[in-house]
Amino acid sequence: MKDRIKEAVASGAIQHMAFIMDGNGRWATRQGKSRNEGHKKGAKVFEEVAEYCHNIGIHHVTVYAFSTENWRRPEDEVSALMRLLSSYLDTAIKRFREKQIRVVFLGDKSVFPKKLIAKMEKLETITKDHTDILNIAFNYGGRDEIVHACREVIASGEEISEETISKHLYTAASPDPDLIVRTAGEMRLSNFLLWQAAYAEFYYTDTLWPDMNAEEIDKACAAFLLRKRNFGALPEEAKLN
Ligand code: IPE
Ligand code: IPE
Ligand code: MG
Questions:
Q1: CATH classification at residue 156
Q2: Does the active-site annotation cover 218?
Q3: For a disulfide at 18, which of 62, 72, 128, 230, Cβ 3.0-4.6 Å?
């Protein structure tokens, strides 16, 4: 990473970076492997990407791992993804303790088997005091999240407002994403962080998720740093005209 970019990122230019991890299936097909092998490789890369982002000073990282719509996939692919999550969780506590990262699962856990829920909650509880956050969106949908948040606001007796809804989103512990990266050439959100993406910058790459690496992340950061973010206001130079 170029020093200039490194410094900007380390000094907090990107507080929250989110990834739509797409292209595991295409990667596997191209290699003559099964889709499930693509997901396995994708899980490994996810680990490396999350670690790299935290190392360069991005304090909040979110990855989209399984959407509320992904249940529409063939049963054997869905169960392979569930098994992958479960085996990942078996070694995760030790790793995230060492890395000092707090893990938060975004999405409705209640549909998972009790044993899996217990593992997810254990990881969340054990890591809860770390300040850097890794959000793992699993059985996550942006629309589902907004409905869930509204229900919670109503149940709590609070008024519906932008603040109260934000407070009840699964991502309540993180700021809105600055940058959303999608791999594999698709240019859509696929129900990801619909509320939180209001002012996010988007970055798309043709690279398939299993080929994602530090260099690609550096490129995304560099592109982000060239963007002008006005949040609806006028940029300074335009005010002079
Ligand atoms: C992303 O890769 C992983 C999940 C959605 C679980 P895909 O499985 O969508 O890969 P492609 O789009 O078929 O290549
Ligand atoms: C989005 O990828 C969901 C995740 C990355 C978990 P998909 O591959 O499921 O998205 P679509 O169906 O192409 O929009
Ligand atoms: Mg896909």
A1: 3.40.1180.10
A2: no
A3: 62
